[in-house]
Design a protein that fits this description.
single chain, 520 residues, alpha+beta, six-stranded antiparallel β-barrel, six-stranded antiparallel barrel, 7 helices, PDZ domain-containing protein, protease, hydrolase, PDZ
Length: 520
């Protein structure tokens, strides 16, 4: 936990949560960088219109000759010391290895005097106007293969180039999305003593509020006083401090020093997503800044349990369900979901776990993507990348990576938590006041859901009329198929909010309104 959490509590409901400054749908658009020298007017081709939802750029003249490439060099020493631990075998993801400086050189597209018909015509103007720098082809291949363990010291993230466009006649929508979103995603380097690594973050405001994961800024609970460096997509480096952490949903807000012109992300509505919708994940896997991967929404209303050394002990709180026994002891057994720091073999086991609601995506997500953006086809933020599934590898020296099953915290939850962290340094979470277990684990089970084992006297569940033996099947309209599902949805709601709880009792389905308590 951060030592900057001595600000007043925030106890509002999810509906009344304060709005995140400068992070609304009309967020500042990325600024157009400088371009190559102008060519004679007669050789400048007509420029297409920008697509809907993207800024209409002012088109520069086409360059007469491509710029030459120059590549500075940089070399870093090997790391030392021990790193945070892996709770389970296999491949989750979190903070990637500390980065190395990589060569970056400017590159301009050659002048084109012919205009071909292309289905991507609507995005060409956006890409040309951005005058995107290149020189990234092949960047990081040697680094990733030969220097997997980066130095602990906070150094610039590898490859601060933005987007490379070699052929403006064959670009696609993903290129346009990346052009819009990359200025709003940063690389975060964290160190504390001999521990350290890198993650990603999303810009919330022009003056430098950034949203990321708690396990990134605390090195999974290893430090409350980290040294943090933030590198923007265009290569600027800022120091940063923790504003507040929320280990219950693994979110954190940091604030950089001296920033005045950062580009805030545009928030999307995760509640409107459909399975099959396009997703784009942007971040710094393995310290490789400005990496873009694509996929779809594979599943919605998913909940996972992840071992976390940063999570507080919750043995005295109810609503906890894991392994189907509802014992609330924070042990998620052989769960295939967890944070992976991708640095050195684990030295100890996490003793607690968190249950969170997530969006499942097959967009490749790897160590270092933690805290980065998951955006929709309009380039709007719909999730904060947080974890991936493993295949159950038992090798302590094996390196984790994407198997096509990644998870992001829905933007609707992230927005509320971020607003509370910015306002008061900590976030609130609901407490139903019931001990639960998987209904499917019962010998006579006929349905899935969260079976209530007991209720706390005076708690929200008891006051709403819930009792032992009831099977909860829906919470705030979201299907509940297990104890973890219910716990994750209760924690997603703000303390003091009113929730709709649907349950089955004696074969009859009923719905009640419950006022949630506050998780301590």
């Amino acid at each position: 936990m951060s030592d900057n959490q001595d600000i007043r509590p925030e106890d509002g409901s999810a509906a009344d949560a304060p709005q995140t400054p400068d992070a609304s749908g009309d967020a500042t658009t990325p600024q157009t960088p400088a371009v190559a020298p102008a060519a004679p007017a007669a050789s400048t081709p007509a420029q297409p219109a920008a697509p809907a939802g993207y800024p209409a750029p002012a088109y520069p003249p086409a360059p007469t000759t491509p710029a030459s490439q120059g590549y500075p060099t940089g070399q870093q020493a090997a790391p030392a010391g021990q790193y945070p631990t892996q709770p389970y075998p296999g491949a989750g993801f979190g903070v990637g290895p500390a980065p190395q400086t990589q060569p970056v050189g400017p590159e301009s597209a050659p002048a084109r005097t012919e205009k071909k018909n292309s289905g991507a015509g609507k995005v060409v103007g956006l890409l040309v106007a951005a005058a995107l720098v290149g020189g990234a082809a092949g960047l990081g291949a040697t680094w990733a293969g030969a220097n997997l363990w980066g130095p602990v010291g906070a150094s610039p993230a590898a490859g601060p180039s933005v987007v490379t466009v070699n052929n403006t006649e064959s670009v696609n929508a993903t290129t346009a999305i990346a052009t819009k979103v990359l200025p709003s995603v940063v690389t975060i380097s964290v160190s504390s003593g001999q521990n350290g690594g890198t993650g990603s973050g999303v810009v919330l405001s022009k003056d430098g509020y950034i949203l990321t994961n708690t396990h990134v800024v605390t090195i999974d609970g290893q430090t409350a006083s980290p040294s943090i460096s933030v590198t923007t997509s265009d290569g600027r480096i800022f120091s940063a401090k923790v504003v507040g952490t929320d280990p219950i949903y693994d979110l954190a807000v940091i604030k950089v020093s001296g920033a005045t012109d950062l580009t805030p992300i545009t928030w999307g509505d995760s509640s409107k997503l459909n399975v099959g919708d396009e997703t784009v994940a942007i971040g710094a896997p393995l310290g490789l800044a400005n990496t873009v991967t694509t996929g779809i929404v594979s599943a919605l209303n998913r909940s996972i349990e992840i071992a976390s050394s940063a999570a507080p002990r919750q043995g005295d709180n109810t609503d906890n369900g894991g392994n189907g026994n509802g014992n609330g002891n924070g042990d998620n057994g052989n769960s295939p979901f967890y944070f992976d720091f991708g640095q050195q073999p684990p030295t100890q086991q996490a003793n607690e776990s968190i249950k969170i609601a997530v969006i499942q995506t097959d967009a490749p997500i790897n160590p270092g993507n933690s805290g980065g953006a998951l955006v929709d086809s309009a380039g709007k933020l719909v999730g904060i990348n947080v974890a991936i599934a493993s295949t159950g590898s038992t090798s302590s020296s094996s390196q984790s990576g994407s198997i096509g099953v990644g998870f992001s915290i829905p933007s609707d939850i992230a927005h509320r938590v971020a607003a509370e962290l910015m306002d008061g340094g900590h976030a609130t979470h609901g407490l139903l006041g019931a001990t639960v277990r998987d209904a499917a684990s019962m010998p006579s089970a006929t349905m899935t859901g969260a079976d209530i084992v007991s209720v706390t006297s005076g708690g929200g569940a008891a006051k709403a009329g819930l009792r032992a033996g009831d099977v909860v099947t829906s919470f705030n309209g979201v299907p509940v198929g297990s104890a973890v599902d219910l716990t994750a949805q209760v924690r997603a709601a703000a303390a003091g909010s009113t929730a709709s709880v649907t349950f089955v009792r004696d074969g009859q389905t009923q719905t009640v309104q419950a006022t949630l308590g506050s998780l301590k």
